[in-house]
Amino acid sequence: MSTSTPTLTVEDLKIIGVPSMAAIIDELSVEVRPGEILGVVGESGSGKTTLGLALLNYCKEGTRVNGGSVSVGEKDLAGLNWRQVRELRGRTVAYIPQSPASALNPALRIRTQLTECLAGSSAAGLARVREVLREVALPDDDAFLARYPHQLSGGQQQRIAIAMAFTARPALIVMDEPTTGLDVSTQEHVLETVRSMCRTYDCAAVYISHDMAVVAELADRIAVMYSGRIVEIGSTADVLASPAHPYTARLLLAVPDLEAKRPMVGIPGNAPSPLARPAGCAFAPRCPLADDGCTVAPPGVTDVGERHSVRCFKADEALPPIHAQHSRARSGRDGAARPVVQISGLKAGYGDNTVLANIDLSVYAGDCLALLGESGSGKTTLSRCIAGLHHNFTGGLLLDGVPLAASSFKRTKEERRRIQYIFQNPYESLNPRRTVEELILQPVTAVRGRVRNSREIVATALERASLRPDHAQRYPDQLSGGERQRVAIARALATEPDVLVCDEITSALDVSVQSSLVDLLRRLQADMGLTLLFITHNLALVRNIAQQVAVLEQGRIVEFGDVAQVFADPQHDYTRALMRATPNFQLPGRLSTAPGEPQAETDASGRGLRVRAL
Amino acid sequence: MVAQTKTTAETASSGRPTTENRKRTGGMRRLLLRRSMFGLFTLWVVSLVVFLATQALPGDAAQAILGREATPERLAALRAQLHLGGSLPEQYISWLGHLVTFDLGNSLAGGKPVVQVIAPMLLNSGVLMLGSAVIAIPLAIVIGTWSALKKDTVVDHVTGVVTLVLASLPEFVVGVLLVLLLATGFLHLFPAVFVLIPGEQVWSNPAQLVLPVLTLVLAVSPYIIRIMRATTLEVLESQYVQQARLKGLPERTVIWRHAIPNAIGPVAQVVALQLAWLIGGVVIVEYLFRFPGIGFQLIDAVTNRDLPVVQILVMAIALFYVVVNLLADVVTLAANPKVRTAQ
Lengths: 614, 343
What we know:
The structure holds 2 protein chains of 2 kinds.
Chain A: E1 8-17, E2 23-32, E3 37-41, H1 48-54, E4 63-72, E5 75-76, H2 82-88, E6 93-96, H3 100-103, H4 110-115, H5 122-135, H6 142-145, H7 154-166, E7 172-176, H8 184-201, E8 204-209, H9 212-218, E9 221-226, E10 229-235, H10 236-241, H11 246-254, E11 302-305, E12 308-310, E13 339-350, E14 353-364, E15 368-372, H12 379-387, E16 393-399, E17 402-403, H13 413-418, E18 419-422, H14 426-429, H15 436-448, H16 454-464, H17 481-493, E19 499-503, H18 511-528, E20 531-536, H19 539-545, E21 548-553, E22 556-562, H20 563-568, H21 573-581, E23 591-593, E24 611-613
Parallel strand pairs in A: 3-8, 3-9, 6-7, 7-8, 15-20, 15-21, 18-19, 19-20
Antiparallel strand pairs in A: 1-2, 1-4, 4-5, 9-10, 10-12, 11-12, 13-14, 13-16, 16-17, 21-22, 23-24
Helix pairs in contact in A: 5-7, 7-8, 8-21, 15-17, 16-17
Chain B: H1 4-14, H2 17-54, H3 61-66, H4 72-81, H5 88-100, H6 114-149, H7 154-168, H8 171-184, H9 206-236, H10 239-246, H11 251-289, H12 294-303, H13 307-335, H14 337-340
Helix pairs in contact in B: 2-13, 6-7, 6-9, 6-11, 7-9, 8-9, 8-11, 9-11, 10-11, 11-12, 11-13, 12-13
């Protein structure tokens, strides 16, 4: 990189919540040079978005800057008046939002929303808009410009948002999780677009994401945020090869490996809320290296390499071995394999719209079958058919060879007990007015009537889902996202089901939490002999949890087989395209699994893999 | 640049909008047609109810109207006028036939044709309601938006309290208070009752209109203000408004171009409900101010057991209800491209 003046300089920035006065961001310093892409990584609640918005001199309601400075080019943002702030936004610093579906105004045409980014004559503006549209590989004709956001696909919407940001040729672009919620292939296009646009305009960029794999592909430098501070920052190569902060190391290990060569390990515990941050290092309660010295005062910045620094007292110490099951998922299938769920010639749809056609599928007892597909492929519809939630289908659906009624209302209690469903979003699937205990008992009383040993059932279910007994009296809003999803799992397990349908259950959660959940499901599968139907769009997850995979494309199964086989030698073009589009996140250098690793394949007792930073 | 192959694919798909445009207007028209049909159906149900409640009730309608001392000749004449002969379905069909052909017979009270009795009343009430709506709706939308923009300031709190008080007071109380305040007690600015000099129109003396209009405005506005404030707040917190601000647009553009059009859709439904309510409220307000409109006429007709007039007025009110709701649908559709372009 050149040593020209940085495009962005943040010094000692502090942003606090009002009226709590709790620091959301503290002691944050960072600089980004022209043409450089800085990836900002962290779990939810780490202050990433607050930082991103502060770069546009924008504070969300209930927050304000309480110290430090943000400068773009030569300008210190704090010294700007309202008119200058307006001129800064969009012209000098542009913002690409997380979800274009909600950030594009539904009532305005694309043309209006793009041209308003530019001051001056509308004719020249329109010419510029067409130019940018071509650059993001969208049509530039009038008919396209006359469309409303809802007439575009998700990928097109995101490209509009990118075009919107680049229209005024800004010096700095802030991107807040722009690919979260997009399919892998769309994500790939978007990332490619971002990369080429930044290169074309020599524009500095801040890319905020919780997905280490994406950041590793895109960014020149990575800043890892934890609890409002940057705990490690350095070039992408340095951070990946030799993470100096234990949190960075654990975050890297939490990313599922597409080749399943190393285990996928979550980070135990939760990030502290800004209101209850520990006195010392915020990561200390979750850190395997922490000692008493870590809890006194927050660590200062230590340089560990060229433009690579860390906030940790133990930066030079190696991580202790992490006990983790090997990620090569193992089937609980016994010798005499029999299909639990059998589907033949299933056809389903909504109204006249056919979503699924000619589905033939068998799920064997003790297996985990992954349904892999992009949004709109019909994977959720298929799982809803199996669970009896979607009854507008024709074709055969057998449970242990016995035909199942289409609607769950017409199924026997026993049949309903045996198939349980876990929903995608734990923030919506738990009734906020019920305690965890009541939530867990609901399906039990529904299929078995009033039970005597209710406490016992709740305790067992909580234990199986790795929750504490005292969680029973909590309400969902007192739980973190990961804990909520565990409650949903406990609820599903309470009826002792045979088949567990997991519908994208990790997609709303952080990577570190995702790893712990996958680990939990794998253990349950082995211990209880559960049969899992795991619906996901994430290939790396499939590799790490399932034995069998069915790839769905537009309502048809285009490929089916053993996971190892499909991943080693995909037969269908669509599967190959999906695999190409997925970032293959490999950890170079120091952080790797211990030598002689995949012993877990033969050793189910799980001696645990040594994961260490040398 | 970015992969050019994609561009061709996208361009090919962008050929669609022309056909889409055609479908789009068709979709909107079909939707409105469906709503209109539903409105007609509603009217038909109302007609059934009106007919059953007034004419088909057990007992003799003619007897009920004329009272116990009626002579047999007069009863027979009335029965003939009300088409009380024949079976119920026959009666209903002939009644409905007269209704839709505006052949409504004569008022029982004055003997004049019903159409002549109610036409001026409809016009007068129309003037009253139109005046109130034209003042109340824009005013309420502006105040509601303003209150939302000034959230948690004195302005907002005062608006909140005042609208809540007004919304909880029945309109006749508001009317009486206004009379006390502006006509008889405190100030003597406007006349307390409406006096229509024969040969003049209701709007000939605008000062007389002030208090009835003001009462209706105060009765209708609070709900619209509150809902406008709520939806505007919601819209202001949306991501697209945040994005508009992050684009560096002037606040004026953010509000008028990005926020208001998205807030107006749900408000239109409330406005329609309030307008529909207006025609009910007008009955009381007209009676209070002795304003010669349909409300006044309706009460009069009920007192005089003037069945044809009651029937036609109730149907007119129902028609108004249906039309206002249809208009609200049109506004909601126009404000929401998603519905507008649905096929």
